[in-house]
Specification:
Number of helices: 14
Radius of gyration: 46 Å
Largest sheet: 5 strands, antiparallel
Strand order of the largest sheet: 4-3-2-1-7
Shape: elongated
Length: 458
C-alpha cells in the first residue's frame, strides 16, 4: 500500500499543495441562492408544461413574466451594480511607497453597501503579484461607513481601496456623497419591498381572480418604474469623481438599474394590455393556474350556464311555454302585472272587434265554437289548462249568449240548450250581483284567462 496513502507527503507529514488555497470572490452567495430557487420553480414548470392543453400561450407568458419579475426584484435588492465605475490605474499598493503596481479598480454601489475591487494586471514581462481584493462596506446605519473605514485602516487594506472608502465615509461639506447614496438606497429599498408585496398579491389574484391579477401586474410595473425614477432623482447632484494615480473613477448606471427598468416596463405594459382586453371582451383572459380551472366550479362554465338560463327564460316569457323561473323581484312583478293587463285589454278588444265584424255569426255558434275547442279570434292558448267537459250539467260560462246580446243590442236573443245553461231562469237573467260574480269566478280551480275576463264583464 506504500505510494497510495503517502502521495504528496514528505516523510509522513501532512499533504503539501503546490498552489495557494486562497481564491478571489467570484459571486454573491445570496444572489446565487435566489437565482437557483427561481430556476428550480421555472424548470418544474417547463417539465409539466407539455401536459397543458388549453391556454398555453397565456399560461407560459404569465408564469415566465411572473418569475422573471420576482427574480429581478430580489436580485436588484441584493445586488451591487446600481452605480458602477471601472478604471485602470498605476498606484502604490501601500501608502508612502515608491513601488507602483498596475491594477484595475472597480467600485459597485448597491442600495445598502458599496463593493470595491482591486486586481493586479501583468504588463509586459512583469509578473503581477497575487492581488485580488473585493471589499464590501455597508452603510445601513448613519455611522456604519465611518466604522467600516476605520476597520479597513486597522486591517491594512491596499491604498487605492482606502482612498475610495474615504470618499464615502466623510460627511462634511463637499464630501457628502455617502449620505446621498444612502438616502437613494433607502428609497429604492422601500419601493422594492412594496413591489415584492404587490408581486405576491398579483400571483395570488392571478390564481383566484385573473382580472384583478392584471390590475396588480400593472401596479407592480408602475412601482418598479417609480423605483428607477426615484433612485435617479436622488443621486448626487454633483457627480462623484474619484481621482487616483493614473486614472479616475466616473460613475454610471449599472445593470441592476437597467434590468429593473426593463422588468417594470414589461410588467406594466402586459398588465395594461390584459386589463384593456378584459374590459373590451370580458372574461376572456385565463390561465390553467386558476383554482377551479376545468371543474364544474370554473368561472367559464358558470358563465355559460348562467347565459343559457338567461336565454331560456327569455324564450319562455316570449313563447308562453311553462318553465321554472326564479322568483321575480318587486320591479319585475310590477312590470309583469302592467304588461299582463295591457295584453288582456288588447285580447279583449280584438275578441269583441272580431265578433262584431261578423254579421252572420250568432251567439249560439260562438258558444259552440268555444265549446268545441276552436281558437277564437283575439284569444290565446293556455297549454296548462285542460279543456275537458265536466260531468256536471252546469257548463261554464253560463251567460255567453246573453253577454253577446248585451254587446250587440240589435241581434236576436237565442235560447241555449239545457247543457249550455243551468236553467231557463238563469238564461233570462242578465244582471248578476257582485257576490255571485265572485262565487262563479272561484268555481273552477284554474279557470282560463278569457273566461275569467268574461265573468268580470258581467
Amino acid at each position: 500500500m506504500k505510494g497510495w496513502f503517502d502521495a504528496f507527503r514528505d516523510d509522513g507529514g501532512p499533504t503539501l499543495y503546490s498552489f495557494p488555497n486562497r481564491t478571489p470572490v467570484t459571486g454573491d452567495v445570496s444572489i446565487v441562492a435566489v437565482s437557483v430557487l427561481f430556476a428550480t420553480f421555472y424548470v418544474a414548470f417547463l417539465v409539466i408544461f407539455p401536459g397543458v392543453r388549453k391556454q398555453k400561450f397565456t399560461t407560459f407568458s404569465t408564469v415566465t413574466l411572473s418569475l422573471f419579475v420576482g427574480l429581478v426584484i430580489l436580485i436588484t435588492r441584493l445586488g451591487s451594480a446600481w452605480h458602477v465605475a471601472h478604471t485602470t490605474i498605476i498606484a502604490p499598493y501601500k501608502a508612502f511607497s515608491r513601488e507602483k503596481m498596475p491594477s484595475r479598480i472597480g467600485t459597485h454601489i448597491g442600495l445598502m453597501h458599496v463593493n470595491v475591487t482591486l486586481t493586479a494586471i501583468p504588463v509586459g514581462n512583469w509578473t503581477a503579484p497575487d492581488v485580488d481584493y473585493n471589499e464590501r462596506f455597508g452603510w445601513e446605519g448613519a455611522n456604519d461607513m465611518s466604522a467600516n473605514y476605520r476597520d479597513a485602516l486597522r486591517r491594512g487594506l491596499p491604498f487605492p481601496i482606502l482612498t475610495v472608502a474615504e470618499y464615502f465615509s466623510q460627511g462634511r461639506e463637499g464630501f457628502c456623497w455617502g449620505g446621498q447614496y444612502r438616502a437613494a438606497g433607502y428609497f429604492a429599498s422601500i419601493m422594492l419591498w412594496a413591489s415584492l408585496a404587490s408581486w405576491l398579491l398579483m400571483n395570488l389574484l392571478l390564481i383566484a381572480v385573473p382580472r384583478y391579477g392584471a390590475y396588480m401586474k400593472a401596479l407592480t410595473g408602475a412601482l418598479l418604474i417609480g423605483t428607477n425614477i426615484g433612485y435617479y432623482c436622488m443621486l448626487p447632484k454633483r457627480p462623484l469623481i474619484i481621482y487616483l494615480e493614473g486614472g479616475r473613477l466616473e460613475f454610471k448606471l449599472g445593470w441592476c438599474y437597467w434590468l429593473l427598468l426593463v422588468a417594470g416596463i414589461l410588467c406594466f405594459i402586459c398588465g395594461v394590455l390584459i386589463s384593456i382586453i378584459d374590459l373590451v371582451w370580458p372574461h376572456t383572459f385565463s390561465t390553467v393556474l386558476e383554482v377551479y380551472y376545468g371543474t364544474p366550479y370554473d368561472r367559464h362554465v358558470i358563465l355559460e350556464e348562467s347565459s343559457d338560463v338567461r336565454y331560456r327564460k327569455r324564450g319562455t316569457a316570449g313563447g308562453g311555454a311553462g318553465g321554472l323561473e326564479d322568483p321575480p323581484g318587486l320591479g319585475s312583478r310590477i312590470l309583469r302585472r302592467l304588461s299582463s293587463k295591457a295584453r288582456d285589454h288588447g285580447n279583449a278588444a280584438a275578441y269583441y272587434g272580431g265578433n262584431a265584424g261578423g254579421a252572420g255569426v250568432s251567439g249560439a255558434a260562438s258558444v259552440s265554437a268555444g265549446a268545441s275547442g276552436a281558437m277564437v279570434p283575439g284569444s290565446f292558448e293556455n297549454k296548462s289548462f285542460q279543456p275537458d267537459v265536466p260531468k256536471s250539467p252546469w257548463r261554464y260560462p253560463f251567460r255567453r249568449a246573453q253577454q253577446l246580446q248585451a254587446a250587440r243590442p240589435n241581434a236576436r236573443l237565442q235560447r241555449t240548450i239545457s247543457q249550455e245553461s243551468g236553467s231557463s231562469i238563469a238564461s233570462a237573467a242578465i244582471h248578476i250581483s257582485p257576490l255571485h260574480k265572485h262565487a262563479l269566478a272561484r268555481m273552477l280551480p284554474n279557470p282560463p284567462m278569457n273566461r275569467i275576463r268574461d265573468v268580470e264583464h258581467w
